[in-house]
Amino acid sequence: MRHAIALHVLLLLGALVALEEEPQQEERNSVNVSVVTWNLAEGSPKLSDLRFLEELGEKSDLICLGVQEIENLTPRRQEGHRCREWRRLQHRVLGKDFVRLGHHSIGSIHLTVYGKRELASRTKLVKMSDVVCGVGNVLQNKGAVAAFLRVDKTTFLFITAHLAAHQTKVAERNGDYWRIIGELEQEIPPAWIKRAAKRRQKALTGTAAAGAAPERAAHGGERSVFLDMVDRVFFFGDLNYRIDLDRLDVQRGLVAAAAVAGGGGAAAGGRGGERGRRRTAIVPEACLQPLPTSSPWVKAAAAKPSLQSLLDFDQLTLERSRGGAFVGFSEARISFPPTYKYDKNSDTYDSSAKMRAPAWTDRVLFLPHQPAVQALDYRSVQTARHSDHRPVVGTYKVMLTK
Ligand SMILES: *[C@@H]1O[C@H](CO)[C@@H](O)[C@H](O)[C@H]1NC(C)=O
């Protein structure tokens, strides 16, 4: 009798242990990936600006940091002081729990990949590459840096880029995109290509694991073969796409969105008492004048008085939907104000003579979409203000393949 009870207790304990292990088992089939893009505008952030990175460290297995304009472009033989400082800050914030898996740069574009220590034995950085897109495809002020990486059997490609600048240069940005994709296609490790071919063969003969085929079929549309050879792709950076509206219409849109969000929220991004002050700060007198009904934003906003009325004119979204670039990529919903161009150390959009229109230049795109990659968070960091750009952070739950 005693024996029987003891056995029951043991079985019960066994069941409890099994229950406890279940979530861990589930965890092993996915990793949390955080991606950061930040145009540093040739300045160093303060340690206190990196609180967000500390928070990312608590919930991420992989962290990829892509920065642009870390230094000015004078040729130098040694690492510049801002690069050193950026490395020191990262180490200070992430060094305890993370291993630096790799780092590579061209000109002022830097990519650094960190992996949680517990994950280190399952993660392999296969290689890093770069593509130059500046003037004549020689000048290293524009281009991309990429990391080819594996977690268990799942292959990842992280691409950070700085694409062509200026409001009207959409075609040049699209051109940079295709050039980057084309060049990186040549860099795919042969073992990845073989594996992808094998899996395609399996899918054709119907023996593929359930789920693999629908995941790939779901994209639809025309896309680079390249993207079929890598399981998970993240493309992020200062992609430089603007809003196809003039400055006044963008500002009107932000003011309207702020009003919809409750007098601050989405567009102001400030805290508490700062809201009122900030709202007036970004609204010049001219915004308060009656609007000409021919204004494109006025027409759009009649239907959607929120950030959406501006996103309807976002060049990147428009290009994606018409197949101009980033075909097949997804992006999480944008609920943060444009991340460019601020007066440095302020919450005010460009008040210089150039009066550049605010834009969502800093973005994170990924592929494939749900359920393989699920966005958990997508936001700008409004408190990090040394640059004329705000950092943008995306966090994703990424399913691993068998
Ligand atoms: C991944 O993110 C989710 C949602 O934030 C969190 O609940 C989970 O604990 C994270 N996993 C790890 C390993 O940090």
From TrEMBL:
<keyword id="KW-0540">Nuclease</keyword>
<dbReference type="InterPro" id="IPR046985">
    <property type="entry name" value="IP5"/>
</dbReference>
<dbReference type="GO" id="GO:0004439">
    <property type="term" value="F:phosphatidylinositol-4,5-bisphosphate 5-phosphatase activity"/>
</dbReference>
<feature type="domain" description="Inositol polyphosphate-related phosphatase">
    <location>
        <begin position="29"/>
        <end position="402"/>
    </location>
</feature>
<keyword id="KW-0732">Signal</keyword>
<keyword id="KW-0269">Exonuclease</keyword>
<dbReference type="Pfam" id="PF22669">
    <property type="entry name" value="Exo_endo_phos2"/>
</dbReference>
<dbReference type="GO" id="GO:0004527">
    <property type="term" value="F:exonuclease activity"/>
</dbReference>
<dbReference type="GO" id="GO:0046856">
    <property type="term" value="P:phosphatidylinositol dephosphorylation"/>
</dbReference>
<dbReference type="InterPro" id="IPR036691">
    <property type="entry name" value="Endo/exonu/phosph_ase_sf"/>
</dbReference>
<dbReference type="GO" id="GO:0004519">
    <property type="term" value="F:endonuclease activity"/>
</dbReference>
<feature type="signal peptide">
    <location>
        <begin position="1"/>
        <end position="18"/>
    </location>
</feature>
<keyword id="KW-0378">Hydrolase</keyword>
<protein>
    <submittedName>
        <fullName>Endonuclease/exonuclease/phosphatase</fullName>
    </submittedName>
</protein>
<keyword id="KW-0255">Endonuclease</keyword>
<dbReference type="InterPro" id="IPR000300">
    <property type="entry name" value="IPPc"/>
</dbReference>
